[in-house]
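Continued from yesterday's entry.
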Amino acid sequence: MLTGQIAASGGSAIVAECDIVKERAQLKERIGVVFEEQNLYERLSARLNLEFSCWLYGLLESRVDEVLDLVRLRDRAKEPVRTFSNGMKQRLVVARALLHRPPILFLDEPSRGLDPISAREIRQTVKQLSQEGITSLLTTHLMDEADQLCQQVAFIVDGRLVANDTPRNLKLSHGQRALLVTLEEGQHCENGNRSLGEKTLSLDDPTDQQRLAEWIAQGRVRAVHSREATLEEVFIEVAGVRPAIARKDALDILLNKATLTLLLSPILLAVLFVVIGGLLGSHTTNVLVYNPGKSGVEQSLYSDHQGLADLL
């Protein structure tokens, strides 16, 4: 909805000074969108891909070299896109979205499916765009990525905004006022070095504060880390992931029960015919049998109950 691809179902929003309900055509001219799929012409070079987009939208081709420099692909511009790594292709998609100089760039899972090196290249590109004054709206399931790139983080669950703040504030507000201290113990390892241990100290406990000062004076402290929450831990806490998982497990159980009932129904039906036939004293039983190996329902006549027992 925010990119104008579908009509808003309700409410209102302003993006790049455009009303997404009343000014969808103008909105598309003022934003860039990087989709999850790399929809490029792989037999064409990187330059020809961008020049074709310029021709298609009536843009000056002089912009091509500028965006190639921006995403660090100028030296590979003449090579076919099919020879590019996934990270390079993703950077080219970003370059194409920037041809018309949009002030806002939407990125949908930009590093999904990329190896660590390619993902880092994409993140460096997004950081550089920020330095160029371009606002990026990033959707991602990778909390580390959001922590590295975003100045503001919003958590959306089932269409509801459940949290919205800076990454630092979110982590501090849901973390512990404690320190994790790595220090040398008295024992020595086989290599001659002292073994290391970890202690958790409360920032609000004067005794723990005194212990830390003593360890520092003794030269035993090797590292100190705060116990602030990660964005992943914050998301689990504020977004209610566990209840969602519980609901999924309950749904799986219901589906399994429904499947079991469907499989047992023909057998139960046949047993019912046997009982009814015995009560009526009939020597011939007419049974409708569902055969999974054939289409439709087969009708079979059994002159005695033994034949029907063999069926079961």
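--- second protein ---
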Amino acid sequence: MAKSAQQRFTEYLDEARSTRESIKEFQDAAYENYRSHSYAAGFLESKLVDVIMSLPRAQREELRAVFRQQAAVLQKEVDKATA
């Protein structure tokens, strides 16, 4: 029997929660080991690039635009703070 939209959505949410928890577990372990978030940040950046590159071109471009937009927002805050 086919799953309902609600069942599929619940499974999606459960998988998203499990993914977040595994990432948090990794980050916590990396922090405990290195006393810094640098290792986790670099590792996650590398994995994020792998994931983005597996997406269709349009989605890759959309995500790059989101990151560039956020970088511009952060840079404005830095410029304001250092002015």
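The first helix runs from residue 5 to 34. The chain has three helices and no strands. Will compare against the first tomorrow.
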